[in-house]
Amino acid sequence: MKLDIDKVALPDLKDSVFIEQYLIPEKPLIISQVNTFDTNILTPNYVLEHFTDETKREAGWFDADLVDNGTIQIPTIVKMILAREDMSVRQSPMRLFMQPQGHVTLPHYDGNSLHGLNQQVLGKKHWIITSPNTPLPSIPFMFAGLVGKDFTYNPDKFDFYEFDTLPGDILFLPRYWYHEVHSMEPINLNLNWVFTPTTPNLNSILGRREVEIVKLRNTMPLVNSAFFPDKFSNYGGQGKELIDAYSKDVSNWKMLRRLFQELAGYPKLLILAKQIKQRAAEFSKNNFNVK
Q1: Which end of the chain is less congested by CB atoms within 10 angstroms, N or C?
Q2: Spatial distance between the Cα atoms of 270 and 275, rounded to a whole number of angstroms
Q3: pTM for the predicted model, two decimal places
Q4: How many C-alpha atoms does 290 have within 13 Å on its Cβ side?
Q5: How many angstroms separate the Cα of 16 from the Cα of each of 19, 22, 86, 112, 201?
Q6: CA distances from 151 to 147, 178, 274, 279 (A)
Q7: Which residues fall within 8 angstroms of residue 98, CB to CB, at 6 or more apart?
Q8: Cα three-residue angle 193-102-271, rounded to 5 degrees
C-alpha cells in the first residue's frame, strides 16, 4: 500500500515524542524547519575541498568526521540521538552526498543495520522507501534490490512511502528500509548521520535476514571474503560486541537455511545481472561532479 509519511516541524517535535513514536518503533519521519547551515559557506566547492575521500566517490558519498563548527552545525536532535547508550556510533558518523540532476540510486538498504538522519541542504530529492516487512527481493547476501530497470512499486505487494525532501528537511530513515532516491535539481547536497542500534530488530523480514547473515558471517569467515566487500570486524562501528548481540539467538538451523535461501537467488541474479550492473554504473556516474 502507498502510505503517507509523517512530517513534523522541529520546533513542534519533543525529543520524547520522537523517541517513543519514531526512533524506537523504527518509523520514518520528515523533520522540517531544520536550518543549521549557511549555504553561502557550505557550497559545492567547499564540499569538494574539505570532504574528498576519493575511494568513496563511486559509492556516492564521502565519509567525514563529526563536524560541528560555523559551517556545519549538528542539529541538537541529531546530537541527542548519537549520544544515546542504545546506539552504536562509528568513528566517522557523518556522510555527505552531492549529486547532479537526474542521478538515481539503485534501490538498497544500508548495511551494518544503520539508521540514518538525512538532512537536505541544497536541491530537492524524490524518495521511494519500502517497508522491511514487504521488502524488495535482495541480491544474494547483499543489501541492494534484485530488480531490473523496469521495476515498479506495486501497492498491492509493497508498503512504501513516496515523497520529496527540500532544504531544511531531515529524513529519519530506519534500518532495513529500502530506498530509491532521485536527485531533482542541478545540485543536490545532503548531510547524513548514521548509527546502529545495539539490539537487533526481529520484528521485520529484513531484520531477521540481517541477524541470520551476521551469524553466518561470524561462523563461516570464508563467506566474508567470498561475498562481502566491507570489514565485518567493525560491524556497526562496534565490532564483536555488536556482532555477538545480533547473532546470539540465531540457531545453526536458521543460519544454514539462510545460506541456502541466499544461494537460491543466484539464478535470478544471473538473469538480471546486466540490468543491475547498468543501474549501478549510472549510480556511480558523476557523483560529486557538479558545476
Answers
A1: C
A2: 10
A3: 0.92
A4: 25
A5: 5, 10, 15, 26, 21
A6: 6, 14, 14, 12
A7: 44, 47, 48, 187, 188, 189, 190, 287, 288, 290
A8: 90
pLDDT of residue 38 exceeding 90, the answer is no
Residue 126, amino acid: H
Q: How far apart are CA 121 and CA 234, in angstroms?
A: 30
Joined together, the cell numbers standing for residue 122 give 541544497
Q: By the 8 A CB rule, do 191 and 73 touch? A: no
Q: Which of 12-16, 29-33, 60-64 has the lowest mean pLDDT?
A: 60-64
Single out the residue of 110, 112, 117 nearest to residue 94, CA to CA: 117
Query: DSSP E strands: which ranges in the chain?
Result: 2-3, 6-9, 29-32, 62-64, 87-88, 94-100, 115-122, 125-130, 160-165, 170-173, 178-183, 187-197
Strand partners, 172: 29, 117
Q: What value does the mean pLDDT of the chain take?
A: 89
Any idea which residue has 534490490 for its cell? Answer: 145
Count the neighbouring beta carbons within 10 Å of the beta carbon of residue 202: 12
> pLDDT band at 66, cuts 50/70/90?
low
CA distance 197 to 228: 21
User: How many Å apart are CA 85 and CA 193, to the nearest integer?
Assistant: 16
Q: Which domains does the chain have, with CATH numbers?
A: 2-199+274-283 (2.60.120.650)
Residue 290 grid cell: 557538479
